[in-house]
Design brief:
The chain is an alpha/beta fold and 303 residues long. The protein folds into two domains: 215 residues, Rossmann fold; 61 residues, Alpha-Beta Plaits (2-Layer Sandwich). It contains ten helices and 14 strands. A six-stranded mixed β-sheet has the order 6-7-8-3-9-10, sandwiched between helices. Strand 12 and strand 13 form a beta hairpin. The longest helix is centred in the middle third of the chain and has 16 residues. The protein starts with a strand and ends with a helix. The mean pLDDT is 93.
Protein backbone atom coordinates (compact mmCIF):
# COMPACT_ATOMS: atom_id res chain seq x y z
CA UNK A 1 0.00 0.00 0.00
CA UNK A 2 1.28 3.48 -0.91
CA UNK A 3 1.25 5.64 2.21
CA UNK A 4 2.59 8.64 0.27
CA UNK A 5 1.88 9.21 -3.42
CA UNK A 6 3.42 12.18 -5.25
CA UNK A 7 2.56 12.81 -8.89
CA UNK A 8 4.16 15.52 -11.07
CA UNK A 9 4.23 17.97 -8.20
CA UNK A 10 5.71 21.43 -8.82
CA UNK A 11 6.18 24.45 -6.57
CA UNK A 12 7.50 27.86 -7.57
CA UNK A 13 8.32 31.04 -5.66
CA UNK A 14 8.03 33.84 -8.21
CA UNK A 15 10.62 32.91 -10.85
CA UNK A 16 12.32 30.23 -8.73
CA UNK A 17 11.29 26.61 -9.31
CA UNK A 18 11.82 24.95 -5.92
CA UNK A 19 10.26 21.58 -6.79
CA UNK A 20 10.13 20.59 -10.44
CA UNK A 21 7.70 17.88 -11.63
CA UNK A 22 8.56 15.26 -8.98
CA UNK A 23 6.84 11.86 -8.73
CA UNK A 24 7.39 8.97 -6.29
CA UNK A 25 5.60 6.64 -3.87
CA UNK A 26 6.42 5.53 -0.33
CA UNK A 27 5.25 2.14 0.89
CA UNK A 28 3.76 1.34 4.29
CA UNK A 29 6.42 0.84 6.95
CA UNK A 30 9.20 2.13 4.70
CA UNK A 31 12.10 4.36 5.76
CA UNK A 32 12.40 6.64 2.73
CA UNK A 33 15.18 9.21 2.36
CA UNK A 34 15.35 12.44 0.37
CA UNK A 35 19.07 13.00 -0.18
CA UNK A 36 20.52 16.20 -1.57
CA UNK A 37 22.37 19.45 -0.81
CA UNK A 38 20.86 22.68 0.50
CA UNK A 39 18.56 24.20 -2.12
CA UNK A 40 17.62 20.83 -3.63
CA UNK A 41 13.92 21.29 -2.75
CA UNK A 42 13.66 18.82 0.15
CA UNK A 43 12.13 21.22 2.67
CA UNK A 44 9.65 22.67 0.17
CA UNK A 45 8.53 19.16 -0.74
CA UNK A 46 8.07 18.23 2.93
CA UNK A 47 6.08 21.40 3.58
CA UNK A 48 3.71 20.48 0.76
CA UNK A 49 3.31 16.90 2.00
CA UNK A 50 2.55 18.16 5.50
CA UNK A 51 -0.07 20.60 4.09
CA UNK A 52 1.88 23.79 4.93
CA UNK A 53 2.32 24.78 1.26
CA UNK A 54 0.03 24.35 -1.75
CA UNK A 55 1.63 23.00 -4.96
CA UNK A 56 1.49 25.00 -8.16
CA UNK A 57 0.65 21.87 -10.16
CA UNK A 58 0.46 18.11 -9.75
CA UNK A 59 -0.97 16.39 -6.69
CA UNK A 60 0.02 14.35 -3.66
CA UNK A 61 -1.79 12.04 -1.28
CA UNK A 62 -0.76 11.10 2.24
CA UNK A 63 -2.58 8.09 3.75
CA UNK A 64 -4.90 8.27 0.74
CA UNK A 65 -5.86 11.86 1.58
CA UNK A 66 -5.39 14.82 -0.77
CA UNK A 67 -2.87 17.33 0.63
CA UNK A 68 -5.06 20.29 -0.40
CA UNK A 69 -8.64 19.09 0.13
CA UNK A 70 -8.01 16.95 3.22
CA UNK A 71 -5.37 19.01 5.00
CA UNK A 72 -7.14 18.94 8.38
CA UNK A 73 -7.38 15.14 8.41
CA UNK A 74 -3.73 14.77 7.35
CA UNK A 75 -2.47 17.05 10.13
CA UNK A 76 -4.05 14.80 12.76
CA UNK A 77 -2.31 11.70 11.40
CA UNK A 78 1.22 12.83 10.59
CA UNK A 79 4.17 13.96 12.68
CA UNK A 80 6.44 16.70 11.35
CA UNK A 81 9.85 17.68 12.66
CA UNK A 82 11.12 20.76 10.79
CA UNK A 83 14.79 21.34 10.15
CA UNK A 84 14.95 24.33 12.44
CA UNK A 85 14.29 23.71 16.16
CA UNK A 86 10.78 25.12 16.57
CA UNK A 87 9.62 24.10 20.03
CA UNK A 88 8.98 26.60 22.82
CA UNK A 89 12.44 27.40 24.14
CA UNK A 90 11.17 29.03 27.34
CA UNK A 91 9.16 25.91 28.28
CA UNK A 92 10.79 22.91 29.93
CA UNK A 93 11.17 19.51 28.27
CA UNK A 94 8.17 18.19 30.19
CA UNK A 95 6.04 21.28 29.50
CA UNK A 96 6.70 21.07 25.75
CA UNK A 97 5.64 17.43 25.67
CA UNK A 98 2.48 18.09 27.67
CA UNK A 99 1.62 21.05 25.44
CA UNK A 100 1.85 19.07 22.20
CA UNK A 101 0.02 16.10 23.71
CA UNK A 102 -2.83 18.42 24.75
CA UNK A 103 -3.07 19.97 21.27
CA UNK A 104 -3.65 16.50 19.80
CA UNK A 105 -6.11 15.51 22.53
CA UNK A 106 -3.89 12.91 24.16
CA UNK A 107 -1.50 12.55 27.10
CA UNK A 108 2.14 11.59 27.57
CA UNK A 109 1.01 8.52 29.49
CA UNK A 110 -1.31 7.29 26.72
CA UNK A 111 1.45 7.01 24.12
CA UNK A 112 4.45 6.64 26.43
CA UNK A 113 5.37 3.24 24.96
CA UNK A 114 6.09 4.92 21.62
CA UNK A 115 8.49 7.52 23.02
CA UNK A 116 9.91 5.81 26.12
CA UNK A 117 13.21 4.71 24.48
CA UNK A 118 13.83 8.33 23.50
CA UNK A 119 12.36 9.97 26.59
CA UNK A 120 14.53 8.02 29.04
CA UNK A 121 17.50 9.94 27.60
CA UNK A 122 15.66 13.23 28.19
CA UNK A 123 14.14 12.44 31.61
CA UNK A 124 17.14 13.65 33.65
CA UNK A 125 16.63 17.06 31.99
CA UNK A 126 12.82 17.18 32.07
CA UNK A 127 12.76 20.39 34.14
CA UNK A 128 15.35 22.12 31.93
CA UNK A 129 14.15 24.76 29.47
CA UNK A 130 14.24 23.52 25.87
CA UNK A 131 16.43 26.44 24.81
CA UNK A 132 19.15 25.30 27.22
CA UNK A 133 19.43 21.76 25.79
CA UNK A 134 22.33 20.57 23.63
CA UNK A 135 21.76 20.11 19.90
CA UNK A 136 21.35 16.35 20.23
CA UNK A 137 18.90 16.66 23.12
CA UNK A 138 16.86 19.27 21.23
CA UNK A 139 16.49 16.80 18.35
CA UNK A 140 15.35 14.05 20.72
CA UNK A 141 12.77 16.37 22.29
CA UNK A 142 11.51 17.47 18.86
CA UNK A 143 11.14 13.82 17.84
CA UNK A 144 9.20 13.03 21.01
CA UNK A 145 6.84 15.94 20.33
CA UNK A 146 6.33 14.78 16.72
CA UNK A 147 5.46 11.28 18.00
CA UNK A 148 3.34 12.13 21.03
CA UNK A 149 0.02 11.70 19.15
CA UNK A 150 1.09 8.34 17.62
CA UNK A 151 1.19 9.41 13.94
CA UNK A 152 0.95 6.97 11.04
CA UNK A 153 3.61 8.86 9.05
CA UNK A 154 6.62 10.77 10.31
CA UNK A 155 8.28 13.57 8.29
CA UNK A 156 11.76 14.52 9.52
CA UNK A 157 13.46 17.44 7.75
CA UNK A 158 17.26 17.20 8.12
CA UNK A 159 17.02 15.95 11.72
CA UNK A 160 20.78 15.32 12.11
CA UNK A 161 22.14 18.53 10.60
CA UNK A 162 24.53 20.21 13.03
CA UNK A 163 24.42 17.28 15.46
CA UNK A 164 27.55 15.50 16.69
CA UNK A 165 28.38 12.02 15.24
CA UNK A 166 27.36 10.14 18.41
CA UNK A 167 23.96 11.83 18.51
CA UNK A 168 23.55 11.18 14.76
CA UNK A 169 24.08 7.45 15.31
CA UNK A 170 21.69 7.44 18.28
CA UNK A 171 19.05 9.24 16.22
CA UNK A 172 19.20 6.72 13.37
CA UNK A 173 18.97 3.86 15.86
CA UNK A 174 15.77 5.48 17.18
CA UNK A 175 14.38 5.67 13.64
CA UNK A 176 15.07 1.96 13.09
CA UNK A 177 13.18 1.17 16.30
CA UNK A 178 10.23 3.34 15.21
CA UNK A 179 10.19 1.62 11.82
CA UNK A 180 9.89 -1.74 13.60
CA UNK A 181 6.76 -0.39 15.30
CA UNK A 182 5.14 0.09 11.88
CA UNK A 183 5.57 3.84 11.44
CA UNK A 184 6.29 5.03 7.89
CA UNK A 185 9.19 7.50 7.95
CA UNK A 186 10.30 10.08 5.40
CA UNK A 187 13.60 11.73 6.28
CA UNK A 188 15.64 14.32 4.40
CA UNK A 189 19.38 14.79 4.79
CA UNK A 190 22.32 16.44 3.02
CA UNK A 191 24.62 13.70 4.36
CA UNK A 192 25.25 11.14 1.63
CA UNK A 193 26.50 8.52 4.10
CA UNK A 194 23.04 8.42 5.70
CA UNK A 195 21.49 7.19 2.44
CA UNK A 196 22.64 3.64 3.19
CA UNK A 197 20.49 3.68 6.35
CA UNK A 198 17.27 4.08 4.31
CA UNK A 199 15.20 1.38 2.58
CA UNK A 200 14.95 3.54 -0.54
CA UNK A 201 16.17 7.01 -1.43
CA UNK A 202 15.40 9.80 -3.86
CA UNK A 203 18.50 11.75 -4.88
CA UNK A 204 17.53 15.42 -5.37
CA UNK A 205 19.22 18.40 -6.99
CA UNK A 206 17.73 21.76 -8.04
CA UNK A 207 14.16 20.65 -7.46
CA UNK A 208 14.41 17.43 -9.49
CA UNK A 209 14.95 13.78 -8.62
CA UNK A 210 18.09 12.30 -10.19
CA UNK A 211 17.28 8.72 -9.19
CA UNK A 212 14.94 6.76 -6.90
CA UNK A 213 15.81 3.25 -5.72
CA UNK A 214 17.43 1.26 -2.93
CA UNK A 215 20.95 2.49 -2.06
CA UNK A 216 22.47 -0.83 -3.20
CA UNK A 217 20.65 -0.71 -6.54
CA UNK A 218 21.74 2.88 -7.20
CA UNK A 219 25.35 1.91 -6.51
CA UNK A 220 25.07 -1.17 -8.74
CA UNK A 221 24.15 1.10 -11.68
CA UNK A 222 27.52 2.88 -11.48
CA UNK A 223 29.36 1.38 -14.45
CA UNK A 224 32.64 3.29 -14.70
CA UNK A 225 35.94 2.27 -13.08
CA UNK A 226 36.50 4.60 -10.14
CA UNK A 227 39.99 5.45 -8.89
CA UNK A 228 41.09 7.00 -5.60
CA UNK A 229 44.09 9.19 -6.46
CA UNK A 230 46.48 11.30 -4.42
CA UNK A 231 49.96 12.84 -4.53
CA UNK A 232 52.14 15.10 -2.39
CA UNK A 233 50.41 18.08 -4.04
CA UNK A 234 46.72 17.22 -4.02
CA UNK A 235 45.49 20.62 -5.21
CA UNK A 236 48.02 20.63 -8.06
CA UNK A 237 46.96 17.10 -8.96
CA UNK A 238 43.31 18.17 -8.96
CA UNK A 239 44.09 21.00 -11.38
CA UNK A 240 46.12 18.64 -13.61
CA UNK A 241 43.32 16.08 -13.82
CA UNK A 242 40.72 18.77 -14.54
CA UNK A 243 42.72 19.68 -17.66
CA UNK A 244 43.28 16.06 -18.73
CA UNK A 245 41.58 15.39 -22.09
CA UNK A 246 40.54 11.87 -21.04
CA UNK A 247 38.95 12.98 -17.76
CA UNK A 248 35.30 12.13 -17.32
CA UNK A 249 35.03 13.37 -13.74
CA UNK A 250 37.23 14.29 -10.80
CA UNK A 251 36.29 15.65 -7.39
CA UNK A 252 37.74 15.72 -3.84
CA UNK A 253 36.72 12.85 -1.58
CA UNK A 254 38.29 12.94 1.89
CA UNK A 255 42.08 12.64 1.58
CA UNK A 256 41.83 11.54 -2.06
CA UNK A 257 40.49 12.58 -5.43
CA UNK A 258 37.88 10.34 -7.03
CA UNK A 259 38.56 10.07 -10.75
CA UNK A 260 36.82 8.44 -13.73
CA UNK A 261 38.09 8.29 -17.31
CA UNK A 262 36.28 8.70 -20.65
CA UNK A 263 38.03 5.59 -21.98
CA UNK A 264 36.64 2.16 -21.21
CA UNK A 265 38.82 -0.20 -19.17
CA UNK A 266 41.54 2.35 -18.56
CA UNK A 267 44.26 0.79 -16.39
CA UNK A 268 45.83 2.03 -13.18
CA UNK A 269 49.24 2.01 -14.88
CA UNK A 270 48.05 4.21 -17.77
CA UNK A 271 46.73 6.80 -15.35
CA UNK A 272 49.86 6.66 -13.19
CA UNK A 273 52.07 7.16 -16.24
CA UNK A 274 50.18 10.34 -17.15
CA UNK A 275 50.41 11.74 -13.61
CA UNK A 276 54.14 10.93 -13.42
CA UNK A 277 54.68 12.82 -16.69
CA UNK A 278 53.49 15.97 -14.87
CA UNK A 279 56.20 15.52 -12.22
CA UNK A 280 53.87 14.68 -9.33
CA UNK A 281 55.45 12.82 -6.41
CA UNK A 282 54.23 10.22 -3.87
CA UNK A 283 51.50 9.08 -6.26
CA UNK A 284 48.78 6.77 -4.99
CA UNK A 285 46.21 5.20 -7.34
CA UNK A 286 43.79 2.41 -6.49
CA UNK A 287 40.44 1.32 -7.93
CA UNK A 288 37.68 1.70 -5.32
CA UNK A 289 34.02 0.81 -4.96
CA UNK A 290 31.64 3.72 -5.57
CA UNK A 291 29.56 5.25 -2.79
CA UNK A 292 26.18 6.98 -2.96
CA UNK A 293 28.08 10.28 -3.18
CA UNK A 294 29.93 9.05 -6.27
CA UNK A 295 26.61 8.01 -7.81
CA UNK A 296 25.10 11.40 -6.98
CA UNK A 297 28.00 13.22 -8.65
CA UNK A 298 27.72 10.99 -11.72
CA UNK A 299 23.96 11.56 -11.98
CA UNK A 300 24.58 15.32 -11.72
CA UNK A 301 26.99 15.04 -14.67
CA UNK A 302 24.41 13.15 -16.72
CA UNK A 303 21.66 15.67 -15.95
Amino acid sequence: MNIVEVKNITKTFKSTVAVDDISFEVNQGELFGLIGPDGAGKTTLFRMLTTLLIPKSGYARVLGLDIVKDYKKIRKRVGYMPGRFSLYQDLSVEENLKFFATIFGTTIEENYDLIKDIYVLLEPFKKRKAGKLSGGMKQKLALCCALIHKPDVLFLDEPTTGVDPVSRNEFWEMLRNLKEQGITILVSTPYMDEASLCDRVALMQKGKTLGIDTPSEIISQYKKTLFAVSSSDRYGLFQSLLKYENRHSVFPFGDFLHYTDKRENVSRDELKKYIESLNHKEIFIEPVKPTIEDCFMELMEEN
